[in-house]
Fold each of these.
Amino acid sequence: MFEREDLKEKARQAVDKKATYGEDINLDQFDRTFVSHKYLAEDEICALPEDEQKRLLMSGLDVTDQGRGGTYFQKDTTVIHCHSDEEGIQVMPVTEALKKHAWVKDYFWKLVPVDQDKYTASAYFELHDGYVIRALPGSRSVYPIQACLYLDKENLQQNVHNLIIAEEGAELHIITGCTTSPTMKRGIHVGISEFFIKKNAKLSFTMIHNWAEEMDVRPRSVAIVEEGGLFMNNYVCMKPVKSIQMYPTTYLSGDNATAMFYSIIVGSPGSKFDIGGRTYLKHRGCRSEIIQRAISNGGHIINRGHLIGDAPDIKAHLECKGLLLKGGIIDSIPQLEAHVEGVDMSHEAAVGKVAQEEIYYLMSRGLSEDQATSTIVRGFLNVDIKGLPPNLKTEIDRVIEASDRDSM
Amino acid sequence: MLEVQNLTVSVEGKRILENVSLSIDKGETYMLFGENGSGKTSLIMSIMGIGNYQVESGKIIYKGEDITEWPSYERAKHGIGIMFQRPPTIRGLKLKQMLEMVKRDGKDPLELAEELNFTDFLDRDINLGFSGGEIKRAEILQLMTQDPDLVLLDEPESGVDIVNMGLIGNSIRELLQKDLHRKREKSGLIITHSGYILDYVEADKGCVLVNNTIWCTGNPHEIMDGIRSHGYEECLTCQR
């Protein structure tokens, strides 16, 4: 239906292609058959069991829809709720959008290479669904749109494809949570995301992962930011997971385009993270900042960052900081690549432990050793994300605070 | 208020205080002189109970209780407060959050910050990029919010310009209730290397630490004059 022969052929050739990074996963072990769920009205979402609501909230999805401009909610392979309250903001399932709107094809598989690896190929051949969130030219989302990709069926491979489009001059805020049901243990999530930030548009995209201990996760994302556009990408994962490997790429393809990445990761024992970020600064005045905070409680975290300066007058900074709390491994790999004169690029990387003198200092103010340690850790995670609407900042802080209580 | 009895302390196996004794009554301010490396900071760190200061022998009695084995946070909760000379930076922890954590009943941190002309710093990470004077004001603000009964000050004048010194000196006077002539409840132990703090805060007693132990006790102004005239070597001959 929406297949193109060239894409199909490329995908076919990549079905066994291993990813460049991260451990290889045998996809044959997972079930990809469709799982049917009933579509829920707004009041029915509010009636979900309390433990499910709690997990959803931990991932940023508020079932009451308060302070949200719209909701996309997919359970396993099926969309169970989708609506937008914001004028000029469209929210729809990608499969439905491909059938109804010819323009969607102009964005579908335009940035992420379908033959990148076996995961992109699998998402091409066995797509379940995903969302299209589009802000029309000049529109502005007052409240963030929330999206949730929820897994409930044991051993499922969930394949989703998302398109996020901020048209010229638009402002769009999205908070997206990926989580599993309280009982689910094992599965894999493959998520293709393509971001289009057009001239002078602004997009903030906050992704919160709250997986199960036996989950593998393989997101594949590419963004393009046009002249004067701003892309803010925040990522929070503080709960145990078997493995996550992702290496989102952003192309700043117009003068004065900006991309900011903030990530907060807590690696629990047994968890493997290979998290990267790459930005091409291709025009004058482009700016990019990658700020990473990683804590290992016994997990293995690889933090990659790669900034490529292709034009004069660009400014790029990469900050990779890691804290080893209870063992584990943190491997920071910052990379700066300049191709022309007149670039301003820097990086700062540090891995350490909680400083004893800071603990002593706080204890002398009346905090017990445990309180002092968790205060320092919370401070370490407190990344100042600039330019977010206050309610979204509060939301991120709430999730970090709640996760922090459980993780430390 | 405080009685230090024959205190011997080591850090990582190295002895840094030897048989130190001193006594501070309620409402009294005690000035501790000594050259660099004499053990002044070690003494107040030991009184505060900072973790790596190991008491080998002797006792610390505070308000009649033996607190020698208490962890520092228990001492803080019972009314001992400290101003560090070089406090660490804590990234991500805002000064405002710290004040909320340490405040004692009845003290409004925002009012105190206004008093110290320090409200612009409330949303900043503690000590991150602060100048010498700003660090001292941040420390004083925390102490005023804590409202301790025994105040330990480690060189409050170091790294502070003359304008800030007036502000800090007045705040210390307030902390130690210096404007009350009777019924003063607060006590202080102040370390000074230069003695400038005496221009702002009157002290009742003074002593000199030399080679990790107390050598000379007496009137703080006389001690300071002696040090200025003859240096710390003179203290070794003093039998007061």
Amino acid sequence: MNVGTARPPVWSYWIVLPGLMMVWAMTAGYLGSPLLPGPMEVLDTLVRESSSGQLWMHLGATLSRVILAFSLAMLLGTAIGLVLGRSRTFNALFDPLLVLMLNLPALVTIILMYVWFGLVEAAALMAVVVNKIPNVAVTVREGARSLDYRLEQMASVYRFSLWQRLRDVWMPQLFPYLMVATRGGLALIWKIVLVVELLGRSNGVGFQLHMAFQVFDVSAILAYSLAFIAVVQLIELAILQPLENRSSRWRQPESVHA
Amino acid sequence: MLELRIAGRDFGQPVLGEIFVGIERGDRICLMGPSGIGKTTLLNAIAGLDKSIPESAVLGREVLRVGYLFQEHRLLPWKSLMSNLRLVGASKREAEELLMRVGLTGYGAYLPDQLSLGMARRAALARCLAVKPDLLLLDEPFASLDPIMVAELKALVSGILDAQPDMAMICVTHDDKDVVSLANRLWYLNGKPASLQWTDTVGDPQRLEELLGRLRQG
């Protein structure tokens, strides 16, 4: 078995995570400090925040920012990546810019957007999108470069429309690259969204973390973090994995007559 | 029907020299020549895949429907045979009829890579026919198949040609027998850069053999 890529077995999660919880509980019990609350206290906070509706309101605000920013970044990044991958001229023109953007710290974009456009929702979203687009574009560009020229020729001979090419010839080939961009994108975006919220919004998980930080409410910080990790995992399990399984089914069709 | 003038084609080194081709309705052409001489390059040029050939060098292609059987099947591997045929414009009924015609009744829902080489090639041939071609291009259609499959596919192609006397065909092959059974014209590509020689009289196996002997010596 390949150690590098193989998923660990499910039981490892059922051992390692509860184990970690035990260590946490014991350390917290031993220290008895408000700066490290135990699991039960965090759970209490979670229940309280959730029954007051606060948790859902802020989670919802953050999640909708993540979804909006993610969709925009994927759409624009894919379009840019396709153009750069298919045209040498455009690639020569924009590659330097891409390198610059890739190395620009997320924090700089966020600050600049807020300074230039004010502490408004559009500036917050734009900051996240601008941060993410270069990653998507670079990944999709790789995919666009590796498109099978033989299928391109086929599509030319049979006069496929641009839409047919995009949907039926390119997308299935780009799918693995889009999945990579999606995976990396989601992880990156929700972290940036928290910073954006912390710096300039008045709702969302990032804003709540900011408030909790000001009063050193570690219990609230952990409660909100755990809630958000759970949401991101749920997206992974409920949307991304089924999508990936479904769309790669053709890759290993059981051979019937070969 | 189609006229094409190629001023020359090189990929680092010259492949094709100056070549003029004229194709008429009902032409059955076998294209022969040594391996690597540029037969597929010429076929691609005729199919309009060579973007280096200016529009002004081509006459009559805009209105021409081309069916191209590539060396590989080049069906979309993520689409069923049925969807592959529908994509080039066949209706559901037409697609079913085409599958029946190439002996693949009941395989509409299969993915191309679930089929054997011979079956996939027949499916690709069905796609060629789905566009109701004026010009059918076959690039070594009988290569790497076992003798029984070759015989089946040849019978299939002959049947298609008989049923559509107006359709033109160009078939790349290495087998003299194909010329006798399928073609009424012979194109022979040879030299470096390659030039095209052609003849119209290929009906007589004896004379064809002499002719090919001369062509092969250059």
